[in-house]
Amino acid sequence: MSITTGPVSDRPAIDREGLRRKYREERDKRLRPDGNEQYLQPTGRFAHLLEDPYTPRVEREPLTDEVTVAVIGGGFSGLVTGARLKQAGIDDVRIIEGGGDVGGAWYWNRYPGAMCDTAAMVYLPLLEETGHMPSHKYVFAPEIQEHARRIARTFGLYDNAVFSTQITRLEWDDGSSRWIIHTDRGDRMRARFVTMGTGPLHRPKLPGIPGIESFGGHCFHTSRWDYDYTGGDPSGAPMTNLAGKRVGIIGTGATAVQCIPYLGRDAGDLFVFQRTPSSIDVRNNHPIDADWFSSLEPGWQQRWLTNFATLQTGGFADEDLVKDGWTDISQRIRDRVIADLGAGAAFTPETMLRAYEDSDDEKMEEIRARVDAIVGDPATAEKLKPWYRQLCKRPCFHDEYLDTYNRPNVHLVDTDGKGVDRIDESGVWVGDTHVELDCIVFASGFEVGTPAARRSGFETYGRDGLSLSEHWEEGMQSLHGIHVHGFPNLFVVGPSQGSNLISNITQNLTEAGRTIATVIRHALDDSADEVETTEAAEQAWVELVETSERAFIGNPECTPGYYNNEGGPIGRKEKRNGSGYPDGPVAFWQFIDRWRSDGRFEGLEFRRR
């Protein structure tokens, strides 16, 4: 059935029913009963993927000292929290990080072409505080990692930090109101407060392909890029060692989209094994003009952040400051609603749903048309088209990826949604086709939907020996996504059950850090030994979160991926883990600003022993 998408006469007719049918057919090809269990943990031959290839481990004596605040994780979550703590006058802060330096995901991800998918002006936190101007609208990984170091230097976070140190156990000592931190270095540190920003993007996962350990050639994961084998470096220098090599890459998600153009440039032959094509929108990267940047008035970054979040979540603003693919579809939805209301439609959920569906259909048609416009071979172009809603999977923005398939040495091996069948000593099997390879690159990403303790590598034990895994067995429980009942003086840093703005993760972290620093500052000023959310406040917040229609769990009708629990069931647990404030991120930040400013800290108890 063909319909016209809204009351405006010049809107193109789209066969909505046919499109939905195509989306369902493509989804059904990819559904599998094992969900997240289809991926392998790095063990055996791949155990080295949990090691640090970039910084040699230097032995040291175990630490048994005490700090005011232990910040677990040296990525942006730990850095912005540490910075806010320092701004609040709390100097006794220690970052504990498993890698050899700060940076988190940007410490591990050094593959060629790695860069942010959100504009640097809003993605890089604390730009004004550090006095830094991004070089481009979207910046590459080396610049992002250097900005992480800049934050650490600016706020003195290197001074008491410990690196190459993996926490093995975190336990609350009720007698002293202190956290005891055990590590693989034999440390038994004590901390009055602990912030936990371990993040979801640091533990690599592998595809569960039969025979994966039997491959006789070279192989590595993108998060542990082997430049000794490929040649080149993270800046994108030619990987001269790949000349004449037959290289295969398994995965076509956000990471693969960025590194495939470099592999296509340098490999003798590149074979791209695809289960599901990514949605590739225009990036249009460009340098940032220094004169223009210097003209920005103080407070510019907060204005940009609010503007981006407002537009990206369907709100209204006089101007789009960022102007990217994230804000584009939201503005389309908004404009359609306005047009419908002007034509006499009522403002109802049905009006909003129709505007969303029409805008998404229009956008995805444009993205598929872009494939045809760039890729020369029609058969290859057809296989590269994404048949799902734009936000079913992480949207990608790139200006070179699609054109890479016009290279004669680049071969798309589409698996029609099934994935690679098996790997043997000499290569990869897809159906009855065998592709001989010298090297396999696994672009299979990081663990997202697995238990937090598995991803972080340690368990957290609160009052009476209760583990965080036990407390969260039926899904995350918190107040504001930060405070957990039964775990005094512990603060979680992340988007879930808070602002939940997935398009710009760092904004969630920066605001959470501000809240945490405010609470800890108040506890110190009040001589409180413990701060903890009440059970009633936690339960009330969880019940509120469960009403949210903005859950980061995707649509069960979407093609499988980590946005929708790999196509598995989405129950109460999944909704708790992926939901935020029901009224959206901007409303949450307004709410939490009032909450931390009124001095009452409703829902928390500050106790003196």
Structure description:
This protein is an alpha/beta fold. The strands form seven sheets. Strands 4, 5, 6, 7, 8, 20 and 21 form a seven-stranded mixed sheet that branches. A five-stranded parallel sheet has the order 10-19-11-12-15, covered by helices on one side. It has a three-stranded antiparallel sheet with strand order 16-17-18, with no helix packed on it. It is built from 20 helices and 23 strands. The radius of gyration is 24 Å and the shape is globular. A hairpin with a 4-residue loop joins strand 7 and strand 8 (188-196).
- Kindly state the number of beta strands: 23
How much of the residues is beta strand, in percent?
A: 15-25%
In this structure, how is the largest beta sheet organized?
Answer: 7 strands, mixed
- Number of helical stretches of at least 4 residues: 20
- Spans where pLDDT lies below 50 across 5 or more residues: 1-9
Measured as a percent range, the helix fraction is 25-40%
Overall shape: it is: globular
Average pLDDT metric: 92
Structural class: alpha/beta
Based on CA atoms alone, the radius of gyration comes out at 24 Å
How far do the termini sit from each other? 70 Å
Secondary-structure blueprint:
Elements: E1 2-4, E2 13-15, H1 16-30, E3 39-40, E4 66-72, H2 76-87, E5 93-96, H3 105-108, H4 120-123, H5 127-130, H6 141-154, E6 167-173, E7 178-183, E8 188-196, E9 206-207, E10 218-221, H7 227-230, E11 246-250, H8 254-266, E12 269-274, E13 280-281, H9 290-294, H10 300-312, H11 325-342, H12 349-374, H13 378-383, E14 396-397, H14 401-404, E15 410-414, E16 422-423, E17 427-430, E18 433-436, E19 439-442, H15 452-456, E20 459-461, H16 468-471, E21 490-492, H17 505-525, E22 530-533, H18 535-545, H19 572-578, H20 585-597, E23 604-607
Parallel strand pairs: 4-5, 4-8, 6-20, 8-21, 10-19, 11-12, 11-19, 12-15, 13-14
Antiparallel strand pairs: 1-2, 3-9, 6-7, 7-8, 16-17, 17-18, 22-23
